[in-house]
Amino acid sequence: MDSKAAIKICIDTADMVCLAYLGDLTDAEMMHRPHPACNHINWQVGHLIVAEHQMMSSAKGYSMPALPAGMAEMYAKDTQGSDDASKFMSKSDLMAAMKEQRGGTLKILEQVSEADLDTATGIDYAPTIASLLSMQGSHWMMHAGQWVIVRRNLGKPVLI
């Protein structure tokens, strides 16, 4: 197995876990916070999508699909305290944006050569293109643990 295939497995595994955890949540349930000091799931998912777009757009020589109009502002740090669902995207719109951005990331993974995986990004937490690509699965998994807490509080079934 080559490096690109290993990175793809990590991204695909994160997608499987995260989409399972989000699958049966309603728009109202997406507004739940695992703790009062944590962000609600809707904000977290929007943040993940915006972050993926920004991180992968920073990879020189590659491009990502555009985000929906206003999404970056909607999920900026200064909006994380809001519990007003009308200020955020619906779950279906979030999932469509996620699918489009993930498609852009996977296109970059297909296009990048094995040698170019070592290209420096200038980002301290993802210093190479390989680590930037790998971060797309890892970042989602970092947040997924919080969603399990919300799921348990809501009485949702254990999935994984």
Structure write-up:
- Strand 1 and strand 2 (126-128) form a beta hairpin.
- A two-stranded antiparallel sheet has the order 1-2.
- The protein is globular and about 45 Å long.
- It is 55% helix and 4% strand.
- By secondary structure, the protein is mainly α.
Structural class: mainly alpha
Order of helices and strands: HHHHEEH
Shape: globular
Note the total helix count: 5
What's the CATH class label? Answer: Mainly Alpha
Assign the CATH topology.
Four Helix Bundle (Hemerythrin (Met), subunit A)
Strand order of the biggest β-sheet:
1-2
Percentage of residues in helical conformation? 55-70%
Layout of helices and strands, plus pairs?
Elements: H1 3-23, H2 41-57, H3 71-74, H4 91-111, E1 120-123, E2 126-128, H5 129-153
Antiparallel strand pairs: 1-2
What features would you highlight for this structure?
Four Helix Bundle (Hemerythrin (Met), subunit A); two-stranded antiparallel ribbon; 160 residues; mainly alpha; single chain
Short description:
With 160 residues, the chain is mainly alpha-helical. It has helices at residues 3-23, 41-57, 71-74, 91-111, 129-153; strands at 120-123, 126-128. It has one domain: dinb family like domain (Four Helix Bundle (Hemerythrin (Met), subunit A), Up-down Bundle).
